[in-house]
Amino acid sequence: MAKLIYSMITSLDGYAEAAEGGLGTGAEDPEVHTFVNDLFRPVGTYLYGRRMYETMVYWETALDEPGRPPHIAQYARDWQAAEKVVYSTTLDAVSSAKTRIERSFDPDAVRRLKDEADADLTVDGPNLAAQAIAAGLVDEYHLFITTSVVGGGKRFFPDGVRLDLELVEECAFATSGLIYARYRTR
User: Fold this and answer.
1) What burial class does residue 111 get, using C-beta atoms within 10 Å of its C-beta: 0-12 exposed, 13-18 middle, 19+ buried?
2) How many independent structural domains does the chain possess?
3) What GO molecular function terms would the record report (predicted)?
4) Which domain holds residue 164?
5) What is the phi/psi pair of residue 175, to 5°?
6) Are 133 and 6 spatial neighbours (Cβ–Cβ below 8 Å)?
7) Residue 77: inside a domain, yes or no?
């Protein structure tokens, strides 16, 4: 049985999306990007909402751009190799290979995906993750915490949820100040 992982960059005050723009620095750090590459290379399936998919579909053509650093090219290859499921009621078509659209988030279907998968899955984006968390589907939480406090936006963890987690790994990146923390559900 595969794990379902929820991972995002988050502000120091817990927002996965800031109300007024960026979450601060860190993700563009080559050391952080290489760490992310290594961490998520084994992922077999990405679960996205429409907005997150529209952000991530960049990786479908990233290899076409000349002069890409090796860590960017590697992430593009890994992303292209994985399956993608986009949950959307408004998206008419996808523009990446190995991608399908589902019109609604069905917890039982995701449970079956986890049961049948040989590789881990991720759920990306705070709205879709909130549904997976509410259904008790998320096995691990990977937070990349920036040095910024943004004061509002969409929270990494949805309101009204109580979770008891176990810290299983942490890493600090000196150049960017970003902190990685991996938690497992108890």
Assistant:
1) middle
2) 1
3) dihydrofolate reductase activity
4) 4-17+31-57+83-185
5) -65, -45
6) yes
7) no
- 118 in any annotated domain: yes
Q: Quick check: 71 and 32 in contact, CB under 8 A?
A: no
| Torsion region of 17: left, alpha or beta (phi above 0 gives left; psi -120 to 50 gives alpha) | beta
pLDDT above 90 for 159: yes
CATH for 137: 3.40.430.10
For residue 114 the two structure tokens come to 């986890």
Reported as a single tens digit per residue, the pLDDT across 43-100 is 999 999 999 999 999 999 999 989 999 999 999 999 999 999 999 999 999 999 999 9
pTM (predicted TM-score): 0.95
What pLDDT, on the 0 to 100 scale, is given for residue 27?
A: 63
Residue 173 lies in a domain: yes
**Which has the closest alpha carbon to 121: 131, 130, 110?**
110
Longest dimension (CA), the chain: 46
Beta-bridge mates of residue 84: 46, 99
- Residue 99: both structure tokens together: 């991608």
Parallel, antiparallel or unpaired: strands 140-145 and 45-49? unpaired
Residue with tokens 């890493």: 171
The H or E element that residue 166 is part of is strand 165-172
Q: Within a 10 A sphere around the Cβ of 150, how many other Cβ atoms?
A: 20
The three-class DSSP label of residue 11 is coil
